């Protein structure tokens, strides 16, 4: 029987710096906001506070109130706005402070965003990204530690990505923003 051994990660090349997942996500958002004027970011504390986890650091100062939008604590409301904007041709990145809070907007995510392309026979695209941290984290207990990736992965019309590395995070976010459906 052949034994599998873990392969150690490659050492970074001389002069190559390590990039955190947070910085990789920030780079992806910055590059996509720069590339396409239809892309915008909305969610709780994403603008003036630079994001609860600093993923959107510097973006509000660079792109302003029309492209990086702080919302009230009303996931159902801002998710509905983002879905409508996507149906109208914009490309929103709808950020949940934690993905647990997406349950407050489950109707908009599943019944409005995920099913619209199919229900319209392909005539209405919904180019939206729902983004946020997901799963267990220290000190947040029952309110923030569930992982809904498998559940969302079983919903027709949604594509679920779970990056492993900084490179994955950046590439998958950019690809998601460019995708014509959620």
TrEMBL record:
Its cofactor is thiamine diphosphate. Transmembrane segments: none annotated. SUPFAM superfamilies: Thiamin diphosphate-binding fold (THDP-binding). GO terms for molecular function: pyruvate dehydrogenase (acetyl-transferring) activity. Pfam families: Transket_pyr. Residues 19-182 form the Transketolase-like pyrimidine-binding domain. Its EC number is 1.2.4.1. Keywords: Carbohydrate metabolism, Glucose metabolism, Oxidoreductase, Pyruvate, Thiamine pyrophosphate. It catalyses: N(6)-[(R)-lipoyl]-L-lysyl-[protein] + pyruvate + H(+) = N(6)-[(R)-S(8)-acetyldihydrolipoyl]-L-lysyl-[protein] + CO2. GO terms for biological process: glucose metabolic process; pyruvate decarboxylation to acetyl-CoA. PANTHER family: DEHYDROGENASE RELATED, PYRUVATE DEHYDROGENASE E1 COMPONENT SUBUNIT BETA, MITOCHONDRIAL. Heterotetramer of two PDHA1 and two PDHB subunits. The heterotetramer interacts with DLAT, and is part of the multimeric pyruvate dehydrogenase complex that contains multiple copies of pyruvate dehydrogenase (E1), dihydrolipoamide acetyltransferase (DLAT, E2) and lipoamide dehydrogenase (DLD, E3). These subunits are bound to an inner core composed of about 48 DLAT and 12 PDHX molecules. Interacts with DLAT. The pyruvate dehydrogenase complex catalyzes the overall conversion of pyruvate to acetyl-CoA and CO2. This is Pyruvate dehydrogenase E1 component subunit beta. It comes from Scopus umbretta (Hammerkop).
């Amino acid at each position: 029987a052949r034994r599998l051994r873990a392969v150690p990660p490659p050492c970074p090349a001389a002069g190559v710096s390590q990039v955190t997942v947070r910085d990789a996500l920030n780079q992806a958002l910055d590059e996509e906001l720069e590339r396409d004027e239809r892309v915008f970011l909305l969610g709780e504390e994403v603008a003036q506070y630079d994001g609860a986890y600093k993923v959107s650091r510097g973006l509000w100062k660079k792109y302003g109130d029309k492209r990086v939008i702080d919302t009230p604590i009303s996931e159902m409301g801002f998710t509905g706005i983002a879905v409508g904007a996507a149906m109208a041709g914009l490309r929103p990145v709808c950020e949940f402070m934690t993905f647990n809070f997406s349950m407050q907007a489950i109707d908009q995510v599943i019944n409005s965003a995920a099913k619209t392309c199919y229900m319209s026979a392909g005539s209405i695209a919904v180019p939206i990204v729902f983004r946020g941290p997901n799963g267990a984290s220290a000190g947040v207990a029952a309110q923030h530690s569930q992982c809904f990736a498998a559940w969302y992965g079983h919903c027709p019309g949604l594509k679920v990505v779970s990056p492993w590395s900084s490179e994955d995070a950046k590439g998958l976010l950019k690809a998601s923003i460019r995708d014509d459906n959620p």
